[in-house]
Structure formats: C-alpha cells, structure tokens
TrEMBL record:
Name of the protein: LysR family transcriptional regulator
Keyword Phosphoprotein on entry: no
Keyword RNA-binding: no
Start and end residues of each HTH lysR-type domain: 2-59
Superkingdom of source: Bacteria
CDD domains recorded: PBP2_LTTR_substrate
Keywords, sorted A to Z: DNA-binding, Transcription, Transcription regulation
One of the Pfam families matching this protein, by short name: LysR_substrate
Membership in a protein family: Belongs to the LysR transcriptional regulatory family.
InterPro entries named in the record: LysR_HTH_N, LysR_subst-bd, WH-like_DNA-bd_sf, WH_DNA-bd_sf
SUPFAM superfamilies: Periplasmic binding protein-like II, Winged helix' DNA-binding domain
PANTHER family cross-referenced by the UniProt entry: HTH-TYPE TRANSCRIPTIONAL REGULATOR, TRANSCRIPTIONAL REGULATOR LYSR FAMILY
C-alpha cells in the first residue's frame, strides 16, 4: 500500500513543479517535502525524479505514480460528494466551455449564486479538446461541446444551434460587405478566429477566398472579452459565435453582417454518465437549458 501522505506530497510537487512552492501549498517545509519524496522512492524502490539545477523531471516511474496520485484525488473527491447531502444549493459544480459561451453564461451563474450561498460554481473557458478531456478525467462536471461526444463515459444533449457571425463596425451596416472590403478593414484574429474564418468566409466567398492565412491581419487578441473592442473602434472585423457578440458590453457599436449562407455550431451540454443525478449538477443543467431556451 502506498503511503497516502507521501503520495499526496509527490502529486503536489509534480503539479507545482517547484519544491519551495509545493511546501507553501502543503503547509510544510522544503526539507519535509524532500523527505516525503525520499520515503516514497524507498517504498517503490525506484527514483521518481531527475533533478536539473532548481528544476526536475519525473522519471517514467514518477510519471506513472503521478497519474495514480491524480486518480486517487478524483476518487476521494467523488466519495466526498457522495457522502454529502444531495442538495441543489450545496457543493461545487465545475463547468467548461468556449470563451464566447462563457461570456454569455457567467452572468446567469452569478444570479444562481445569489440564491445559494453554499454553492460554488467554477467556470473555465478552454478549447474544445481540453473541455472533453476535463470531463473524461472528472475535472469538470459539465461541458459545452460543439460536437456530440462518442466516449462511453459521457452523456450529452443538444441544447441549441448557435450562429457563427461576421462582425464589422456599426458604420458599415449600410455598406455592401465583400471579401475586398473585409481585407481593407483588416482581420481581428483570436485563438479560434482562423478556424471560424475558414468555416464562414469559405462558404460565402468560395470563388475568391483562399484561406484564413491570406487575410490581412490587423491585430490579434486572446482575451475573449476584448476581441470585439477593435471592431467597435472601427479597426477591423471579427468572426465569433453569437453568444460572444451578444455578451459584448458595446454591442451597439458593432454590426452582424447578414450573409447569404449561414453557418451554425451545434452545442452539446455534456456530463459524465450518472452525474446528472446529483442535485446541484441537475440544477445547473436546468439553469443552462432554461436560459438557452430564452435565448432562442
């Protein structure tokens, strides 16, 4: 049997990547962390890290043990949840989704918190792959995905079809907008921007569109709340899901171009099998479905 305390120390060390900061997280001294590491290495009979100056790299045995440590934490968290009373207003719910959907969803989650002082809601904006992996690992309770998951441990329901929008400065609302006008204005790039451009512009300007790498980039930003700011200032165009546009605080300063060919993403509310029976998770599922219905 692995010593649970030593394993927790080693798992924290791998997560933090630094002996002194790990000691701070654990409320220990640095020599104490080193002692736990040596005892765990003696227990398993193999070195667990290779030091390189002030940094270190886990050995293959260390990597395997780190995975065991993470799995034990998830098991303990799940056990704690099962032991808690099943109350919709008590406990934690961890949600992952795209940045644009997070902008729209977060104010609704804050309203939920006002009525449930013992409920904790954690919202993470992340790429689709990270959300799916977080759900599979158990790090997330709920996720919003743009494709139906195929993993057997996940369940999903389609909650809406979200339009992908070409957004330009409001003064252009009465102008004809073609690819030449867009390139003259300049592209506001963001982490999903090139993929969105290929999906939307490729459909609507098929004869002349050569790919997002041929767009004239004016600026780039990876903060979802700032993507439309240069558009509102007349400095470029952007492509975002409608939830991100509607949540923009200067919505009146931008305009969604009415393109002849619309493109939508299906949004799937996804969760681990069986977890929707937990009252607090079921309550958040119900909240999201209610607000999405109102949006449509």
């Amino acid at each position: 049997m692995l010593n649970a305390t030593w394993l927790n120390t080693f798992t924290t060390l791998c997560e933090v990547g630094h002996f002194t900061r790990s000691a701070d997280v654990l409320g220990m001294t640095q020599p104490g962390v080193s002692q736990h590491l040596r005892k765990l290495e003696a227990q398993v009979g193999k070195p667990l890290i290779v030091k390189d100056g002030k940094s270190f790299t886990p050995t293959p045995a260390g990597e395997a043990l780190f995975k065991v440590g993470l799995a034990r934490r998830r098991q303990e968290r799940d056990l704690k949840e099962l032991m808690q009373r099943d109350d919709p207003d008590v406990g934690e719910v961890r949600i992952g989704c795209s940045g644009s959907f997070a902008m729209w969803l977060y104010p609704h989650l804050l309203e939920r918190l006002r009525t449930a002082p013992d409920l904790a809601l954690h919202l993470t904006a992340a790429p689709q792959g990270d959300v799916a992996r977080g759900l599979i690992r158990g790090d997330l309770d709920l996720g919003i995905l743009t494709t139906q998951p195929r993993q057997p441990q996940l369940e999903a329901k389609m909650i809406m079809r979200e339009e992908l929008c070409l957004v330009v400065p409001k003064p252009m609302r009465n102008q004809e907008v073609g690819l030449a006008e867009l390139n003259e204005l300049g592209f506001v790039a963001h982490p999903d921007g090139h993929e969105y451009a290929d999906e939307l512009l490729g459909r609507n300007f098929a004869q002349e569109y050569q790919g997002s790498d041929h767009l004239r980039m004016r600026t780039s930003v990876n903060q979802i709340g700032q993507i439309l700011t240069p558009v509102a200032e007349g400095l470029g165009f952007a492509i975002l899901p409608r939830s991100g546009v509607d949540a923009f605080e200067r919505r009146g300063d931008v305009y969604i171009v009415d393109l002849p060919i619309k493109h939508h993403h299906d949004l799937w509310l996804t969760f681990r099998s069986g977890r929707s029976n937990f009252a607090r998770i079921a309550s958040v599922i119900s909240l999201i479905e209610k607000e999405v219905f109102a949006l449509n």
